[in-house]
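Researcher: I'm preparing a figure for a lab meeting and need a structural model of a single chain. I don't have an experimental structure, so a prediction will have to do for now. The sequence is pasted below. Please return the structure as C-alpha cells so I can convert it later.
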Amino acid sequence: MGSLKQSTRDYIAETDVEAPGAKTAKLIEVTGSGGKRALRALADGNRRAADALLRMADDVATQRAMVRAWERGDVSTKELATSLRRYNELDASQRAEFDDMVAVGGSDTVRMASKIDRDTLDTLTSRGCSRRLPSVGAAGAPGTDNQYAVTGVAAQSSGGVCLSSEDIEELQQGIARAADGDEIDSYQDIDDAVETIERLDSDGQEAAADLIGELDGEGVTVVNDADNLRNEVDGLSDDEISDLLVSYDNYNDADIATRDVRTIQDDLNRIANEDDVEGLAEAIREKTNAGKSNMKGLDGEAEAARILINNDDVTVEELSVDGQDGIKAEIPDEKVRESEVDVDVTTDQTIAVESKNRDYNNIPPVPEIRDEAVEDLRNKFNVLSRNRDQIVIVSRTDNPEQNDIIQEAKAQADFPPDFDPEEDINFVSYDELSELE
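Model: Understood. Here is the structure written out cell by cell.
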C-alpha cells in the first residue's frame, strides 16, 4: 500500500467494500499500474464507481477489460465510472452475460455500457422475458463524451423481449460487434433497435435478433430502418414490420436471394421518401405476408422502382397496382381476369413495368412448373395490354426474347387490335430501366 497516493489510501480506509486492501492488491496484480491509476482517478471523484471496480475481484477478465479501455483512452473517466456503476447494478446472471459481451466487443462494449439506455443494457443482459420501464433519453454518438441521461417519462411504455437463450446470445454478440464496428452512427441506434424488438411480435423479435446476430451493425440499421417505415409509410402496422423482418431473415439465409437485405432496405427507404409515389405499403404487405412471403418479388420490385425514381424521363405513379385498382379486363372466351402492375409509370404514355426477378432460363423442365410460368405471363399480357400503352418486363434472364417460356406466353396471348406485342412489349435488364423514356 505504500506506493498508493494518499487520496487512494484515504479512500480505502473509508470505503465500506469488504476487505478493500486485499481487493486493491488483487486489482493491481491483475491490471498493473493501470488499475492503480484508475482506482485513484475514481476515488478522487466517484467513489461509488471505485467501489464497483474493487467488487469486480471475482470478474477479473471484465475488470481487466474495463481498466484497459480507460488506460488506452478508449473511455473517459466519466464513462468508466458509469459503466462500472451500471455493471454493479446488474444481478449475478446479468453480469455473466455482460462478461460474455465484453469478451467479444472489448473496449467498445465497455463504452457502450456507459452510453446506452440502462433499460437497454438490462434487456441485453437478461435471459427469458424482460420488460422495459417507460423512459426517454438520448445516447451519445461514438467518440463523444455525452452521458446518457434519463430526461423524463415516456407517455407509452414499450412491450417486452421474450427470446430463447440462443436468440438472446445472438443478439448480445451482434450488439457487441456493432459497438465495435463502423456501421452504426451512434449508440442511440442500439437503443432504438432494442426498443423496436420489444415492440415486435415473437416471430419478429426472433428475426430481428437473428439479423443483428448475423449482420452486426448492419443488422441494427436494417431493424431500425424497417421500423421507421411505420412513420414514413401510411398504413404499415407493427405486425407488418414483423413480417418484413421475418422475410428479411429468411431471405438473408436463402440461396435464391438476389441482393442483400441492407440494399433492399435502402431501396425501400428511397421509395418511402417520395411523397408522390403510392403503394409501398401494399407492396410490402402483399409480398411479406406471413405464410406466403415473396421476398424475392419485393427485392425486384424495390430495385425497379428505385431505378425508375432516379430516371428523370419517367414519372413513377404507384407500386403494386392490382385488380382492385382497376387492372382487370374481359378477355375473349374467358371471364374477367385480373393482373398486377409492379411499378406504374407514365411518360407521354402509360407503362406497366413488371419485375420478374427470376431467370426463366433456369426454370426446371417440369411440365407443371413451366405451364404455370407460361400461364402467369399469358394472363399478364392479356390484361395489361388492355390497360396500359406499353408493357416493360424487367428480367434477369439473358436474351429473354429467345426464351421458350416467354415466347410461348406471347404466342398464346390474345392481344387487342391496337396493341402490337412486337412494338409495345419490351424486355429489359434492371440496369436498362435507367434509359426508359
